[in-house]
Design a protein that fits this description.
The chain is built from 8 helices and 6 strands; from the N terminus they run βαβββαβααβαααα. It is an alpha/beta fold and 196 residues long. A 6-stranded mixed beta sheet has the order 2-3-1-4-5-6. Helix 5 packs across helix 6, helix 6 crosses helix 8 and helix 7 packs antiparallel against helix 8.
């Protein structure tokens, strides 16, 4: 059963262009609206089509006035790319939950040797006092034969934390994906939801 929340809940979804960050946050917003919450959403596309940073702010609750989250007030961080998760840590509240894929997409500066990639990101997140839910999103999605569903795998993992019935998520997937992709995305959601 959906649970009432007393104040706005803040979710930050981060990734790079091509990972389906915007699609995932749009699905999230629809799910929250279907559950009866007021929802505000905003995104920032930094050269998204060229693999640049993509950030979505999603806020929900009984009454939400603004779409943007204040730094230090994120309740849930969902990272589709490892370094983007680490890069977003300054946005978190002390009690925030972190969900991150292990996917590493090296930027050009790392490829040419001008900057190092933080392959130890999970360790650094833990050192900051958080216990991230680490999901092999792309690997799980590849079990279904379509790695592009990794974003829905991560949404499945997020769904375990939110006060929304699972069937609302499943109905939103049925309503918002083309019929030929519904079963695939339902399976991706299930994989994420049941991931340990």
């Amino acid at each position: 059963m959906n649970q009432p929340v007393e104040k706005p809940v803040n979710i930050l979804v981060v990734g790079v262009g091509g990972q389906g960050t915007i699609l995932a946050s749009e699905l999230l917003a629809m799910v929250l609206m279907d559950a009866g919450y007021e929802v505000k959403k905003s995104e920032v596309h930094g050269m998204a089509q060229r693999g640049g940073r993509v950030v979505s702010h999603v806020r929900f609750g009984p009454c939400v006035y603004a779409p943007l989250i204040i730094k230090g007030e994120v309740d849930y961080l969902v990272g589709f790319e490892l370094s983007e998760t680490l890069r977003s840590m300054e946005w978190l509240s002390p009690d925030a939950k972190v969900i991150t894929d292990t996917k590493a997409i090296l930027p050009y500066t790392s490829l040419v040797g001008d900057a190092s990639y933080p392959f130890d990101a999970i360790e650094k997140i833990t050192e900051k006092g958080y216990e991230p839910a680490v999901i092999e999103g792309e690997s799980l999605a590849e079990e279904l034969g379509e790695k592009k569903t990794a974003n829905i795998v991560l949404m499945g993992r997020l769904a375990r934390y939110l006060p929304v019935e699972r069937k609302i998520w499943e109905n939103a997937i049925r309503s918002n994906f083309p019929e030929k992709l519904v079963d695939l995305n339902l399976e991706a959601f299930k994989l994420g939801y049941e991931a340990t």
